[in-house]
RNA helicase (Sesamum radiatum), 235 residues
Amino acid sequence: MAEFPLDPMLSKMIVASDKYKCSDEIISIAAMLSIGNSIFYRPKDKQVHADNARLNFHMGNVGDHIALLKVYSSWKETNFSTQWCYENYIQVRSMKRARDIRDQLEGLLERVEIELVSSPNDLDAIKKAITSGFFPNSARLQKNGSYRTVKHPQTVHIHQARFGTVSLNFLLVQVLPRWVVYHELVLTTKEYMRQVTELKPEWLVEIAPHYYQLKDVEDTASKKMPRGEGRASKD
């Protein structure tokens, strides 16, 4: 992992992508995560249009990480069009930086002999690779709509109002996933999770048996709470 000039969790995610045969998708996600939270913008006079454009990437409750992959892949399909970025309220400069980072990561894959393999339709494989890197950042839904981190328990939230830290895809259906993995926590009025993806709790024991035991996940069949029980925080 020392070969990758990234946060150790991102590096571990990339290394795990070799096992799950999705290195192509994972380096795109890693590049997008590396540029921070400056991908989308909301002009004051076009906030509804900007919000709708952003929601399009979250259709299907795919999770924030997969949505970032969709953004990058869609941009690539347009031959990295600047006009496409304008039409989708996406920062061109941020995307160019993500492309540069991704190019570097692709070169590093070759150096460490990880084959560039694409599995765009195997979302579970992609999520398992993400979980392999970020398994310490897992949280479980509580009855009041907040989340509780599994290890070193603390209360965290999915933000409903502010687009800077919101997890839009789950809020569309208003049924929150019972288990999630997140990229990082952001402290505003509360601790909010940034970049959130649903996972199956058994993955935690499968992927990180040195960190999780069955007792950590045994009370949580990977079902979502009934509609109306788990709602996102509005604060």
Remarks:
- The chain has a mean pLDDT of 86.
- Strands lie at 138-141, 147-149, 155-156, 179-187, 191-198.
- The longest strand covers residues 179-187.
